[in-house]
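>> received
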Amino acid sequence: MIKMIFLARRYLSYLFTSKTRYTIHSPFVYQLVQEVLRDSTQYQDYQVLDSVRKSLLENTNLIETVDFGTGAGEKKYSTSVHPVGKLVKLRSHRKAQLEMLYRLVRHFKPRTLLEFGTAAGVSGSYLKMAHPGSRMITMEGCSGLAAVAETVFGDLKLSGIQVLVGDFDALLPSVLQQLDQLDFVFFDGNHRKEPTLNYFYRCLPLSNESSVFIFDDIHWSPGMEAAWEEIKKEDAVSLTIDLFWFGMVFFRKGIQKQDFIIRY
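>> returned
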């Protein structure tokens, strides 16, 4: 209940402070809103991906899950047994959010994709199918969920995806050694301040002018809001967009540093 009240208050604040596309003076951001965020095209992939998502929601198979994030509370990790469908409902995004991730990747066409938090592979499928030619690495702390994700990727005939299982802190150094740049990163694995900032600063050296970093649930808690504020102040960051559920970070050169709160 406390969490819901906190989010409700933050959402009201977002509604009062956010701008519409009509008050945006940045050509880059205005174009992004018009061509991507507000794109209402019903892409053929949506139907396929949504069918997979709904099938997973109905999956009653039990798996043991490991949580290294906020679900572990004060412990390093916690374990529990749940039906796949319940975990997908808890850990996956709403259809509209997933479709926005798809459109972002489709628009920017990143050569490399990195995802923190594979879960059952729902968001990863949307990301990868939007640009099949990309190289994607996705990390998941729970081996049971990672196995489900690999099955999903296989059923969708998505290739070029490397699924790594384990604690992100242990996995990330070897992941970054494999890559020469990070074009698109989706941070959706540990909704706490210190880990979020740690992942951001470790990924930052591989960013480039065209990179897009997406942070999930930037208003989830005071800690996540503090992390978001610090990320916005980083010198290498030239532009940020607060969409309430997602925070978008860009590193474009030759533009004035700006932070937008957008209601699209």
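>> The first strand starts at residue 62 and ends at 67.
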